[in-house]
Amino acid sequence: MNPVTFSILAIVGVAVGGLVIGGVRIRKIGLGSAGVMFVGILAGHWGATLDHDVAEFAKEFGLVLFVFTIGLQLGPGIVQLWKDQGLVLNGLAVAVVVMGVLLILMFHSIIDLPGLAAGGLFSGATTNTPSLGAAQQAAATVVDADTDLGMLASAYAVAYPGGILGIIATMVILKSLFKIDIEAEAESAAKLSGAGFEPIVRRCILVDNAHLSERRFGDIPGIEETGVRISRIKRGDALTVDPATDQTVLHPGDVIQVVGTEAGLDRFEPLIGRRSDFDLMDYKSEACHRRIVVTEPDVINKTLRDLSLDLIYNSTITRIIRSGVEMPGRGSSRLQYGDVLHVVGDEESVDRVTQLVGNSVKALNETQFAPVFLGVFVGVVLGLIPISIPGVPFPVKLGLAGGPLIAAIVFSLLGKLGKFVWHIPLSANLALRELGIILFLASAGLSAGKTFFSVALTSQGLLWMLAGLVVTMVPLLIVGLVGRLVFKVNYLTLCGVVAGSMTDPPALAFANTLSDSSACATGYAAVYPLTMVMRIVAAQTIIYMLLA
To answer: 3-state DSSP call for residue 417?
Structure first.
């Protein structure tokens, strides 16, 4: 059979078997996509082999898809997490790396672990392939030219599957130890990600401040800080209600309907009058209310103040719904692709605003692949750029995992570049992410299966495997306990940090099966870049310390 055809059949067969096994749950816990890795190891051991080039492409391209789609979806959330807990989460991840290095050095002394095996064991137990490459590069410079470096790869292959299981086991142990309620943790994570965004409500207020006579609503002192927006007004004894904007002039006796948070409205109300018993929604009105989706690239990243909808379109945006969270429509609010705007104005004006911002449901549900491939291209190039670190004789690289992740985060924050919009519908994002991790795990498992059992079933291999499990689990359990007990880190976020501190996509895939919350993936991406660089540096440091 054609090698490429056989490789495709092998990957697909392993994926089916792995997903079936991963779907089996015991006490609501299953391997998920990580099951593909272990079926791949068995298939590789039983003789299923891949064409080398096909295997490398499937593994690396799958990894690129996985990390890029994660970064694209979670970029804004990562920035918020960095602001709130960035120092704590990255501190925990750094502690995992440092403890791993110390344990490797301890095993080198206690069980006479060879220097080459130590480098491979560190990379395998921490499931970090780029660090293996860095260790091989460093070893080539400090050993004789005829020295076989195969021990590095063998130790890596023996420790890698145990590393994945150890990470997953750590998550399960922490869940049991702290008696975690997953739904409660997901709800807590959702509240944390929406910190600062209180529910938006509307209120009718009677204007009785004489100092506001002939003053426009937008000119009221402190109006921007309160986040209050005006939507409707009833003049004096009039029986009709008109739409209102920041340009609307107020008079004593007017009743206005304003929208904002309870706190913002409580600050605003004493400035102009008192709460009214009138409900302007019950009156005949020319005001039209519509929800409009932002899909026009030209308005992305523009503020409401820049758009001047009150002046040009005689309309007001009272609320913005982003990722399920309602926010007041402040003048400083920047629009993002997919935002849902609550617009109030007369029907003709609202129609013009609709045309301005797009409101194309079709565009919202389409995946624009040109920006995706451009982002991947930039990410791959970024991963190839050498980074010089003082004290490290070789420049380090973010590789095919770190580069695309950083690029995706940056592009998600930019939102657009010209006509390119970095937005993938959630369903398409999840599909591409799952496809990527399945390709990666199937290829990695099939490749490792050829030598795994021949090394693992020797006395030396078993000893290395046990040492690898210690290197994997001890730092994670310590950091998990400290993170939960001392820093009160959300369990789902902590699972992301556990997977991210090991730069391990299969572990993240397992963590994502625990809940629909994005907290795991956000925590993973928040610590991944720093951890990746540290692991590359640490692997080289181990080689230089033990072999130089």
So the answer is: strand
pLDDT in tens, 312-345: 988 999 999 876 678 888 888 889 888 899 999 9
CA distance 194 to 187: 11
pLDDT band at 249 (very low <50, low <70, confident <90, very high): very high
- Per DSSP, the residues of 310-378 read HHHSSEEEEEEEETTEEEE--TTPBP-TT-EEEEEE-HHHHHHHHHHHB--HHHHHS--HHHHHHHHHH
Q: Which two structure tokens, joined as six digits, stand for 346? A: 């007369």
Phi, psi of 213 (to 5 degrees): -60, 130
| DSSP strands (E only) in 49-181 | none
Strand (E) or helix (H) holding 454 = helix 426-456
Q: What is the mean pLDDT of the chain?
A: 85
Tens digits of per-residue pLDDT, 370-429? 999 999 999 999 888 887 777 666 676 777 767 888 898 888 888 888 878 888 887 888
Any idea which residue has 């023996």 for tokens? 158
Rounded to whole angstroms, how far apart are CA atoms 82 and 90? 9
How far is 58 from 8, CA to CA, in rounded Å?
10
Which stretch, 86-95, 135-144, 519-528, has highest mean pLDDT?
A: 86-95
What's residue 194's pLDDT? 55
The DSSP element (H or E) to which 230 belongs, if any, is strand 229-234
Residue 219, C-beta contacts closer than 8 angstroms, at least 6 positions apart: none
DSSP-derived 3-state class of residue 222:
coil
Cβ–Cβ < 8 Å for 62, 506? no
Selection from 92, 154, 84 nearest residue 117 by Cα: 154
What is the value of pTM for the model shown? 0.71
Per-residue tokens: 375: 């982002």
Q: Look at residue 196 and tell me whether its pLDDT is greater than 50.
A: no
**pLDDT tens-digit series, residues 250-277:** 999 999 999 998 989 999 999 899 999 8
Query: In angstroms, rounded to a whole number, what is the distance separating the alpha carbons of residues 363 and 425?
Result: 10
Q: Which of 505, 463, 497 is nearest to 37 (CA)?
A: 505
Choice between 154 and 337, residue whose per-residue pLDDT is larger:
337
Residue 19 has pLDDT above 80, yes or no: yes
According to DSSP H, which parts of 29-51 are helical?
A: 35-45
d(CA 402, CA 407): 9
pLDDT given for residue 445 in this prediction? 80
Half-sphere exposure of 69 (CA within 13 A, CB side): 24
Q: Quote the Cα angle for 491-497-502, to 5°.
A: 135
SS3 labels along 253-309:
CCEEEEEEEHHHHHHHHHHHEEECCCCHHHCEECCEEEEEEECCHHHCCCEHHHHCH
List phi, psi (to 5°) of 273.
Answer: 165, -135
